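Late entry, written up from scratch paper. The run itself happened at the end of the previous shift, but nothing got recorded in the book at the time, so transcribing now.
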Amino acid sequence: MQKKQLTIITASLLFLFLLCSSSWGARIKDIAVLAGVRNNQLIGYGLVTGLAGTGDDLKKVLFTRQALYNMLVRQGITVNPEEFDKIKVDNIAAVMVNAVLPPFAKPGSTIDVQVSSIGDADSLAGGNLLMTPLKAADGSVYAVAQGPLTIGAFSFGGKAAKAQKNHPTVGRISGGAIIERQPPGAFADNGILSYTLRSSDFTTASNMSDAINQKYGDGTAFPIDSATVKVAIPELFSNNKVQFVASIEGMRIDTDSNAKVVVNERTGTIVMGQDVRLSTVAVSHGNLSLIIKETVDVTQPNPLAFGQTVAAPETQIDIIEDDGQLMVVEEGVSIGAVADALNAIGATPRDLIAIFQAIKVAGAMHGELIIL
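Output as recorded:
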């Protein structure tokens, strides 16, 4: 019975090992972008109406007043410009509307839009966005947005107090924009696909090209530079480009990158790549603490004496320095050994930042040091 259980456990571990081995590496769709398949930014200027007295002050925000006047005129309402300045409206707000147009978007489909106030409105809760054309960088209208806003926040208050939750001047309309025009673009000009690596690297580009050629034959893929890989569509997939692209996207390859150490001095965050290596170097670390205390003593005159009570501040400075330690880091150690060695001398994350900078200046760090 025990032998049978051992056999089952061994088979299960072998299956998991093969499963992990087959899934090793990064998918091409996660490390590369296909040229011609990209998002497009859309933006527009509009008005939100129906606010409960939390809109723009038309006396202060002139562009909101002008937009309201133009909107009324377009609707055929006759408005006297001289008397329009006397109108008091606090339920309307000027907003900027932005959205992301996905690739191959078809007219009639919908996308989400983000609405944000650009005036002095207190809240957009309960507002309704009027029809707003959304333009791309080329100045053409690709979508039209309209509908009620979802805020997920509130803001109430009076003269003495105010209660607010989240951000009430930014809202969202799910499916609030209807696409009116398909964005231009093609992803397979002359039967050639062009992939751009998200992080350019010659080794990764070569590995990607080799993996595709191994599956579809030599000459199918050829790297142009460290960031671009061209792929010729085989004749078998000339009428089914989507299937060919899908098969390439699911392929897993080994990726590579330069050895880097990224530090953020503001937050004390340190991220080190696995390929970072150090030459033999000695690191000395000592904690220096500077404690400054200030107390105030009060000096009073004697009874029945002429004088004034005077505050006499007294400053005390204490300097505490721990004994420094000299740690020798051997040449060619891995990143784990580097972390263990530096932790052994009691270095905090902020101390490590200064230590790494000094090691880099000494020429003992084989990798790029990036300071955010």
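The chain has three domains: 40-154+163-179, 189-253, 261-371.
(Scratch paper discarded after transcription.)
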